[in-house]
């Protein structure tokens, strides 16, 4: 009995010691919060702030875009207004230039009409001064024919002696050369100004046998230098038979240094003159003057294909003009 009691006491002491060493039963340890779980509320706040900033930026960009569009529309409208204003000014300027040109033409015509009073010489020919440059009020001395077909003709070209070369450059043909009492070219610029009113052209020719022929053209005009002194002719009449000048109608003037013809060849250099070369000629009134004996051998002579052909150089030629409304 005492042994059993001691044994029970021993087990009781062991149990008490074990219980004291571990006062509570083992429990599952509490779950610790991770750093991510601890910062979730802070991240949400930052996200909300970022969203707000993005919304603000989007609003600003939208406002800037709208303002830029309004500015572009305003700029486009201003440009269109400026273009419209510029066109109106150009239209007014064109109208003013047209009126100014018309006034100049009227002044020139009045001056040309006033210059019709001339003094006839015993030979029926005279010299007079025509006012052809209205702004400069410069005078041009010309030679007149007051006998042929009622008179009133102004000579613009003459070939009769061969003492003056007609193989000249553009500037010389523009200004004119020679002597008005001998062989000469009046000058493209002067002929252009004299023909700005309705004008008639007469071409008189004589061969080496003494036979004379003529050709006349209504509505003769010469364009300005910008138009290369282009030739314009109306209807033909005359005694020469075949018309050899209409082939050159609506053709620009060419010289050895300014090729305006309608041909691959340089006609002015081939035909040795200044003329309204087409491709190249049916006439060449400003060609080389060949004397009797040499007059029927060359293609660059003073030719009228409708009369003596391409290799016969004429003895004498005169080109003259007068107003269409001239009355003897």
Automatic annotation (TrEMBL):
Higher taxonomy: Eukaryota, Metazoa, Chordata, Craniata, Vertebrata
Annotated source species: Sus scrofa (Pig)
Locations listed in the record: Secreted
Pfam families in UniProt: Fibrinogen_C (PF00147)
InterPro entries xrefs: FIB_ANG-like (IPR037579), Fibrinogen-like_C (IPR036056), Fibrinogen_a/b/g_C_1 (IPR014716), Fibrinogen_a/b/g_C_dom (IPR002181)
Annotated Fibrinogen C-terminal domain residues: 118-325
Gene Ontology, cellular component aspect: extracellular region
Entry keyword Electron transport: no
Ranges in coiled-coil conformation: 47-113
SMART domains from the UniProt entry: FBG
Keyword Disulfide bond: yes
Gene name in the database record: ANGPTL7
Signal peptide: 1-26
Entries under CDD domains matching the protein: FReD
The protein, known as: Angiopoietin like 7
Any single GO BP term: blood coagulation
Entry keyword set: Coiled coil, Disulfide bond, Glycoprotein, Secreted, Signal
């Amino acid at each position: 009995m005492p042994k059993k009691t001691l044994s029970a006491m021993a087990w009781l002491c062991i149990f008490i010691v074990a219980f004291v060493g571990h006062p509570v039963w083992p429990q599952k340890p509490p779950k610790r919060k991770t750093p991510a779980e601890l910062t979730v509320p802070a991240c949400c706040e930052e996200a909300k702030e970022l969203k707000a900033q993005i919304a603000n930026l989007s609003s600003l960009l939208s406002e800037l875009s709208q303002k830029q569009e309004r500015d572009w529309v305003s700029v486009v409208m201003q440009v269109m207004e400026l273009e419209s204003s510029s066109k109106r000014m150009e239209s007014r300027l064109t109208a003013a230039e047209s009126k100014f040109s018309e006034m100049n033409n009227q002044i020139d015509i009045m001056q040309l009409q006033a210059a019709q009073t001339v003094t006839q010489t015993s030979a029926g020919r005279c010299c007079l001064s025509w006012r052809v440059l209205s702004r400069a009020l410069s005078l041009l001395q010309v030679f007149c024919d007051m006998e042929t077909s009622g008179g009133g003709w102004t000579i613009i070209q003459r070939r009769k002696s061969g003492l003056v070369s007609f193989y000249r450059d553009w500037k010389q043909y523009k200004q004119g050369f020679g002597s008005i009492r001998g062989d000469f070219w009046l000058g493209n610029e002067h002929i252009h100004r004299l023909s700005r009113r309705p004008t008639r052209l007469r071409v008189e020719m004589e061969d080496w046998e003494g036979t004379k022929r003529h050709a006349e053209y209504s509505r003769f005009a010469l364009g300005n230098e910008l138009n290369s002194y282009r030739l314009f002719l109306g209807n033909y009449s005359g005694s020469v038979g075949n018309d050899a000048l209409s082939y050159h109608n609506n053709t620009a003037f060419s010289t050895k240094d300014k090729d305006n013809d309608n041909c691959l060849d340089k006609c002015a250099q081939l035909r040795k003159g200044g003329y309204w070369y087409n491709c190249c000629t049916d006439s060449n009134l400003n060609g080389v003057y060949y004397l009797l004996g040499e007059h029927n051998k060359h293609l660059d002579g003073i030719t009228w294909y409708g009369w003596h052909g391409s290799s016969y150089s004429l003895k004498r030629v005169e080109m003259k003009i007068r107003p269409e409304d001239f009355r003897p």
